[in-house]
Amino acid sequence: MNHILQNLSYVTNIEALEQIAGTPSKLVENKVISSLDHHCLDFISKTPFIVLSTSNASGACDSSPRGDEPGFIHVIDEQHFLIPERPGNRRMDSLKNLIENDRIGILFIIPGLKETLRINGSAMITNDPKLLKECEHVGKEPKLGILVKVEECYMHCGKALIRSQLWEPDTWLEKENLPKAHVILADHAKTLNMTKDEVACSLEETYTKRLY
């Protein structure tokens, strides 16, 4: 073990945690609702990007992005909505997790807005044609969808996005200084003996030909 990690103190109960970090305000305690009201519906309709949180039967966790044009999430009623499963890398981590454990948490993000919407509940995978038809885009229907049953909805304050300056272009790295996905993938999957250029071509083909 790294010597820095030895002999550390840990917070192991809620009482100690609250003594250090404090307790929520009355506003925070009372902000959770159990269904989609008109505010949530408006937020969802304007959301192009979400992050799914799932875990498998043993508790191993995963966070996975989903994105499309605003309105890509199909709301069925105040308790249910459908997330289309567009073509990905076929690892299907989120879907496999949901087969083992139906619990799901979702973070809804709108570019330029500091606050986010969080929805927690349960979910199942569907291949029902009449539902998937509602998520057709550029003439293509998804083969699968994630049907979410809502249990909790609440706004999350904007402190994290303010501190990160996520929506401030002046703080963004220059393009040449960004991490290079094709270089990282080539190193991580070096047993395949693919060059960086080959990986870059593979990514470009995926991005241009297999979005839907």
Structure in a nutshell:
This protein is α+β, with helices and mostly antiparallel strands and about 210 residues long.
Count of discrete alpha- or pi-helical segments spanning 4 or more residues: 8
Average of per-residue pLDDT values: 96
What portion of residues is helical?
Answer: 25-40%
How many angstroms does the end-to-end distance come to? 45 Å
β-strand amount: 25-35%
Strand order of the largest sheet: 2-1-5-6-7-4-3
Taking Cα atoms only, what radius of gyration do you get, to the nearest Å?
20 Å
Total E-strand runs = 7
Largest sheet: 7 strands, antiparallel
Question: Which stretches are poorly predicted, pLDDT < 50 over at least 5 residues?
Answer: none
Order of helices and strands: HHHEEEEHEEHEHHH
Structural class estimated from helices and strands = alpha+beta
Taken from the alpha-carbon principal axes, the silhouette is: globular
Question: Could you characterize what this model shows?
Answer:
The chain is 28% helix and 26% strand. The chain is built from 8 helices and 7 strands, in the order H-H-H-E-E-E-E-H-E-E-H-E-H-H-H. It has helices at residues 14-21, 26-29, 38-45, 93-100, 129-132, 159-164, 181-188, 196-209, and strands spanning 49-55, 61-67, 74-77, 80-85, 103-109, 116-126, 144-156. The longest helix is centred in the C-terminal third of the chain and has 14 residues, at 196-209. It is globular, with a radius of gyration of 20 Å. The mean pLDDT is 96.
